Amino acid sequence: xxxxxxxxxxxxxxxRIADGVVTxxxxxxxxxxxxxxxxxxxxxxxxxxxxxxxxxPHVHLDAALLGRRAPNRSGTLREGIANWSALRASLTxxxxxxxxxxxxxxxxxxxxxxxxxxxxxxxxxxxxxxLDLKPVLAERGVQLQVVxxxxxxxxxxxxxxxxxxxxxxxxxxxxxGIPHFERTTEEGWRSVRIAFDLAEENGRQLDFHCDExxxxxxxxxxxxxxxxxxxxxSGRVVCGHCTALHSYPNPYAAKICELVATAGVQVVANPxxxxxxxxxxxxxxxxxxxxxIDELWAAGAHVGIGHDSVMDPWYRLGTGNLLDAASMAIxxxxxxxxxxxxxxxxxxxxxxxxxxxxPPEIFAGESAPILWWDEPDEIEILRLRPRPRVIS
Length: 392
Ligand code: FE2
Fold this sequence. Notes:
Elements: E1 2-8, E2 11-18, E3 21-27, E4 44-46, E5 49-51, E6 54-59, H1 77-88, H2 93-109, E7 112-120, H3 124-139, E8 143-149, H4 160-170, E9 174-177, H5 185-202, E10 205-210, H6 221-230, E11 237-241, H7 244-247, H8 250-263, E12 265-269, H9 271-277, H10 293-299, E13 303-305, H11 322-332, H12 338-349, E14 370-373, H13 378-384, E15 389-391
Parallel strand pairs: 1-4, 6-7, 7-8, 8-9, 9-10, 10-11, 11-12, 12-13
Antiparallel strand pairs: 1-2, 2-3, 5-14, 14-15
The structure holds fe (ii) ion.
């Protein structure tokens, strides 16, 4: 495959892909480049933009596509949890597998080939089913990571911690947690330290649902960052949501943004869910419930953008297209400057890969697949949300 006159970052290039590798990237800017000539029988595309594939850092495949089966009539987090709890015990391997594969295909169709899913460790059949899907999806070119997520906390009731530890022992890639959901502030902090202990013992990454509340008194992110620094976990910890940061007093928020950057903790914003699940105790003015993406960027922190729910008990909408989540982040975060919109687009194919390792780039020698967009301008891609062509 030869792609001529195509945008690569802020350059115009000719790009060749052969036998699963990007073999040539020739920059045309300057005019004296030796153009790549089509070989016989080689497919040729012209124009548009090429990017690495997108990565999804935060979704729940065990619950995906259940939204129609158990409608959330109030649209609240509380009813979502109740609906999930009612469904969870009746889920079968076949059902979980079918929904997870259908959802993964939605991601593939819209350019996402790496998926990090959380799995509720209170449902062992879901844990095993999603772990079993890793090689199945790998054959289809999709990298799957599974986070052992204790949906109902580890300290609130007997047996939950053991279920969560068993999920890690079964082979989950990362240890999850939900400190703001534990009974007390102290137990939340304790749960963070227990999660670090488990990750250390088993050589795993960490991925918390952290401070997913409008309560400015929910201060687990600082504990996660301190533990990450003290235990040398820089680059191996993700904190999803962090919506309390939206509501912290500004001086404390500034301290936290700096601490997140220093700790090498990645914050993953989930704007689709958070805009409808947060602010539920507000009348007006009603808070947006999105973490402070712009201030985290300014502090030098890594921020990812997740879809979180795909038509599940918490969020009835969603198509598995990360451009939808990016568009929502732009709207809610006042990220409408030209630079901010381009940075949001880049997040999907760059920072979103950090939980999976070094983000891919487009250069000669890099492995395919890559995405080709029939549109060179990132902002137009965000506006129109076209489907990319996956080229391998
Ligand atoms: Fe989540």
